[in-house]
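Per-record layout

source: Catharus ustulatus
name: Retinol dehydrogenase 11
length: 336
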Amino acid sequence: MELLGILSPPWWLLLLLLPALLLWAMHRSPWEPHKCPADLTGKTVIVTGANSGIGKCVAMDLARRNARTILACRSQERGQAAVEEIRAATGNPAVVLRLLDTGSLASVRAFASAVLREESRLDVLVNNAGVTGLPFAITSEGLEQTFTINYLGPFLLTNLLLDLLKASTPARVVNVSSFRHSVGTADSAFLTGQRCPGGYDAAYNSTKLMNVLFTAELARRLEGTGVTANALSPGVVSTSIMRHFSWPVRALFSLLRPFMKSAEQGAASTIFCAVSEEAAGITGKYFDSSCRLALPSAAARDAALARKLWEASERLTGLTEQGHPPAPPPAAAGAA
Ligand SMILES: NC(=O)c1ccc[n+]([C@@H]2O[C@H](COP(=O)([O-])OP(=O)(O)OC[C@H]3O[C@@H](n4cnc5c(N)ncnc54)[C@H](OP(=O)(O)O)[C@@H]3O)[C@@H](O)[C@H]2O)c1
Ligand SMILES: *[C@@H]1O[C@H](CO)[C@@H](O)[C@H](O)[C@H]1NC(C)=O
Ligand SMILES: *[C@@H]1O[C@H](CO)[C@@H](O)[C@H](O)[C@H]1NC(C)=O
């Protein structure tokens, strides 16, 4: 009788409501893009990996704010489809595609020189493109593919576009990292595949740590220029990010989708860093998926490690302090 009492309507309704409330609270962010009035008329933004997931939602939001929105994608077909979709949804005709494969330094250089030649300004650069689940492999440029796509390509891209960003201040660099940076290792020998990080999906975790370290060092170097650089975690987001995993892993991921943020919700912290009044002038910081300032892991706050990684990355990409490429020595990557 007592037990049946518990099961009578008001109680089980409450029991149902509780997890629903919990889910809602988990997904809710205190900062919501649609409540932010920022207008980007006359400004130019670049979003890498803008044809799907978080990147597409970010590009959609920035286009809605009237920015000239450059989608930097590696596929002409997928990129153009996103351009059409975003133009149709926002009515903004200044949404354009430029081809970029962050896994190839040659492609990064070609993309950057086209931007420098044809664009008069750059107000926001969102380094969003990223992969996980690819096998450890060395590219024709002698670099490990996941490390190049997620870290070294964006490193070079940002550096090549710095002068244009500085000429368009206040400008912002936004790096999409992950809460998983906290279990990564930043060894520059990973970049060339001389050493291979061990453990489950360790390459991804390590690139996301490098993203935070890079952002910190970049912010230090940009002090006083009016260009800010911040990193963020989008949270656990239901996108196509798991596409390179085996089917059992993908199936498990699918089961968990209802508990994840949608791509729109996952885009909030990136949009926050890119446009919000609250983030204006803030630099070298890490924001969590609720758009709150958070402390990244101890390794991510190690300034000496950040400098070492920066210098190794400069050598590998052939960048010097001045940004002029000498002949890169691809074999000399011993740091960290
Ligand atoms: N989803 C999550 O739970 C989560 C959590 C933490 C961090 N993140 C980060 O969020 C970012 C976006 O991921 P997502 O979840 O939105 O995944 P997604 O749907 O797979 O989107 C990734 C995007 O990056 C692009 N991309 C991949 N490799 C590229 C390359 N070599 N050159 C240019 N573009 C490339 C993809 O283009 P293609 O269509 O051509 O492959 C795609 O547009 C990533 O940096 C990821 O690490 C995601
Ligand atoms: C992060 O930002 C820096 C500049 O902030 C860039 O060079 C780096 O490659 C970016 N990307 C990642 C994804 O770390
Ligand atoms: C990478 O991150 C995932 C998710 O946090 C974790 O399960 C995995 O063990 C990590 N890999 C390493 C090598 O730390």
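summary: The chain has one domain: 37-233+265-317. The two ends are 68 Å apart (CA to CA).
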